[in-house]
Amino acid sequence: MRSALLIAIIALSVVSCSRFSKVQKSTDYDYKLRMAEKYYVAKKYNYAQQLYEELFPLMKGQPQFEDLFYKYAYCSYNLHDWLQAENLFKQFVEVFPNSPKAEEMEFMRAYTYYRQSPKPALDQTNTQKTIGLMQTFINTHPNSPKNKEASDIMDKCRAKLEEKQSSSAALYYNMGHFRAAAIAYTSLMNDFPDSEKSDTYKLQIIKSYYSFAVNSIEEKKNTRFEQVITECNDFMDRFPESNLKKEVESYETLSKNNLKVNNNEQITKTN
């Protein structure tokens, strides 16, 4: 049964290829355009793309060219050829800046970068390009019905960038590079000031500086424990309602106790 089905599929594929080959060999360009439209509607984008590509230079300046260009770009998009699709969406706007479809093409250009945005652990160049192009789209088309979607995509991209940066800071901390971790978490807070995790990041700054102080040479411990206390006070000012206050208070107490011990030891040594 399966063999028969496989044979039938192969046979249909051969017939389809044979028909397409005949269309390709035709010198009737109107016929080719009609067939490209049929393939496009049938979602046979590979066939449609090949015909549009052949007709592309021949149809320039013709009334059908704008629609051909539009569908040619979407063929690349639907075939997941993001680089080609992005280029064609961009070119469409350049060639037809006053087209009713130009706004859609601008959005789709930005969207192709979003489709290329990888997991947070990987390089986020395309994520950053998505944010830039989506913001440009919103600024250029303030009344577009696509703006809500553009804003949502930007939020998702920022969340991905935040996750990547947070993971990098956590890696510094887990590897025992406490000063680097504190700096990384501070940058994270500055880059994402509206993050829901801001109090968590601030706590990580405190923990990082505390561990840095504990592991410092005696001559520098006091200065570094004072920095922890400063960070704790800043936490209380910024996040008075945070449920992390008790943990922060414990680090403040520990730092003050360490300062007292160190000061007493210095007095004893002096005497």
Could you characterize what this model shows?
By secondary structure, the protein is mainly alpha-helical. The protein has a domain at 176-271: Tetratricopeptide repeat domain (Serine Threonine Protein Phosphatase 5, Tetratricopeptide repeat, Alpha Horseshoe), CATH 1.25.40. The chain has helices at 2-25, 29-41, 45-59, 65-78, 82-95, 102-115, 125-140, 147-174, 178-191, 198-214, 218-238, 245-270. Helix 3 (45-59) packs antiparallel against helix 4 (65-78) and helix 10 (198-214) packs parallel to helix 12 (245-270). The longest helix is centred in the middle third of the chain and has 28 residues, at 147-174. Keywords: Cell outer membrane, Membrane, Signal. This is Outer membrane lipoprotein BamD-like domain-containing protein. Residues 36-218 form the Outer membrane lipoprotein BamD-like domain.
Quote the average pLDDT.
Answer: 92
- Total beta strand runs: 0
CATH superfamily of the domain at 176-271: Tetratricopeptide repeat domain
Termini separation comes to 98 Å
What shape does the CA trace take? elongated
Largest sheet, in brief, is: none
Radius of gyration (CA) equals 30 Å
CATH architecture term of the domain at 176-271: Alpha Horseshoe
Might you state the CATH topology name of the domain at 176-271? Answer: Serine Threonine Protein Phosphatase 5, Tetratricopeptide repeat
Main CATH class of the domain at 176-271: Mainly Alpha
Query: Strand-and-helix sequence, N→C?
Result: HHHHHHHHHHHH
**Which structural category fits the helices and strands?**
mainly alpha
Domain Outer membrane lipoprotein BamD-like: 36-218
InterPro entries: BamD, BamD-like, TPR-like_helical_dom_sf
Pfam families: YfiO
Protein name: Outer membrane lipoprotein BamD-like domain-containing protein
